Amino acid sequence: MMYNETNVYKNITSDERREYLSVLQQESTIAFIPTFVYLGLLAMVGIPGNSLVIIVYLTKMTMKPLNIFIISMAVIDLITCLLILPGILYFLLHMWDFNDPLTCQSLLALIALLVMSSALLLVSIAIIRYMKMCRPFKKQVTLRQTKLICYINVFMAIVVSIPHGILQGKHSRQTQNPNIVGYYCKIDDSYVETIWPTLNSAFLFLLFFVTSFTVTYCYVRIGCAIRGNGMNVHQRNYLSATTKISKNVAKQHKDVKVTDLGDRTHKKSSLTFGIENESESVVEPVTISDLIDINTETKSNDYINANVENYNVKKFISTDSPGRDDFSDNIALDEFIIKQRFETVTPSYVSQIPVLEKRRKHLNRTHFMMLTVTLVFFLGFLPFLGLNVLLAVSPETVASLKGWSLAMYQLFLESYLVNCAANPIIYSLMDQKFKDICIQMFKIKL
């Protein structure tokens, strides 16, 4: 509701108004003590925690797409702790006598920018993890593309946050004295009676549900892949390939011939060779990319492709092997080559199965860690969204809150900030390498 200050204050002096509003502010300040404690804890954990995340992931770990996203989110969370938390504290201390519209617009626009950036980063992480887990043969993002995605996300957040900030300003609130009106930082009175606040809220709600649906879909698919298959596609192909080799060796190479040993063909970005079983008339393809040591978590696609391109099946044949002329016929030559290849490949690569199993578990922990970060972010938003719906539907109910009910209302209204302190804790609990590096840095002996 808009008020004409000249008419409202015609019978009230400035000192009387100031004293009356200060009493109301004292009551609100007492009710906001739980919120002050909450904000203080977020700052105490978030500032050193996110600083540590930035230092460790930036200087102590191999740079890869996921780490770039983690560093970007830590920067956003650190800015939140340094700028947003003190700003909210200032607003809470001026819930009745606020008189700085520009600060209100700037801070609420910055809040929208940081929150939107975090949400878009989490969506990007979910999509990239989905591609890595469920579409491993598709082209994966590179480090350069990951940085570009981060820049695009921030740009999109800026575009969304600017209109949101413009709508903010001095919002009047009625007191029990009809001749005195207080002001706090909210939608400016000049926009209250327009359609713009409604459109802004509807757009933000739509954006929240779209991002929530996207990350939910991606992680459900990832969970199904982990639970249903027990390992990623590369590992399944590896075990399948080594099993085929072992079975062929067990048959003592009977009725087996090598098909096109010298040719190298690409199938799904990998080198393949065929072992043809004449009795069954089928070709069982074995992918070299499934036999070489590939860690998609730490090596880029360019690195993997380079290894595949440089791979030469002739390396399995001993340098002092007899020449073609030393064999009576091609069958004897085929049997010799198969024996040399299998005796060299099978023992060395079958021994890698426990290593792949360890990496599978690490990959699953990484998925679970990012899922936890995402859940904390979006679940933290639910109380904030619910209370804003209550404010829009029944503003009289919110205005009548006092004491403990007001304290809980304001506390849960800031629930969306929890991730700025929770993320470093999640990394320390679920990323063993991050934990080990931190222990080593501070020389903590457990």
Automatic annotation (TrEMBL):
**Per its record, what are the GO molecular function terms?**
G protein-coupled receptor activity
Q: Which UniProt keywords apply?
A: G-protein coupled receptor, Membrane, Receptor, Transducer, Transmembrane, Transmembrane helix
Mind telling me which GO cellular component terms the entry cites? membrane
Which PANTHER family does the entry mention? G-PROTEIN COUPLED RECEPTOR, PYROKININ-1 RECEPTOR
Where are the bilayer-spanning segments?
A: 36-59, 66-93, 105-128, 148-167, 202-220, 368-394, 406-427
* Compartments reported by the entry: Membrane
Primary location recorded for the protein, binned into one broad class: membrane
As for membrane topology, the entry says: Multi-pass membrane protein
The name this protein goes by in its record:
Neurotensin receptor type 1
The G-protein coupled receptors family 1 profile domain sits at: 49-427
Coiled-coil features, chain-numbered ranges: none
Matches recorded under Pfam families:
7tm_1 (PF00001)
